[in-house]
Amino acid sequence: MLVKLRLSGTVLELMKFLERLMRIFYVDKQISALGPEELRFPNQELKLLHIEDDDEFFIQSKLPQINLNNPPNTIKQISFNKKLSSNQEQPNK
User: Which residues are within 8 A (CB) of 36 and not within 5 positions of it... i.e. 6 or more apart?
Assistant: First the structure.
């Protein structure tokens, strides 16, 4: 899958697009026994997580894993293009 992004788009649009491709987890080292917490509330302020040194964020892809030794017929790729001509397809929102 080739994805083209418009540079005139907003950060919010990019975040909404990436949300479909990945999940973000936060691990508070002081209470790490509870495991990672998925960040599901996009309007939540980061300061409410009380992030400290040594806390971690994990990014998990929602895309299927690709075995590079035996690639499928189509390999998913994301590319960033500075320009889109008027006859090119617009990216999905």
Answer: 25, 26, 27, 58
Walking along the chain (93 residues) 10 residues at a time, the average pLDDT comes out as 69 79 87 85 84 86 70 47 48 53
Identify the H or E element spanning 16.
helix 11-19
Tens-place pLDDT, residues 18-35? 788 888 888 898 887 888
88 belongs to a structural domain: no
| Domain ranges, residue 9 | 2-64+72-78
Q: Is residue 20 classed exposed, middle or buried when 0-12, 13-18 and 19+ CB atoms within 10 A define those classes?
A: exposed
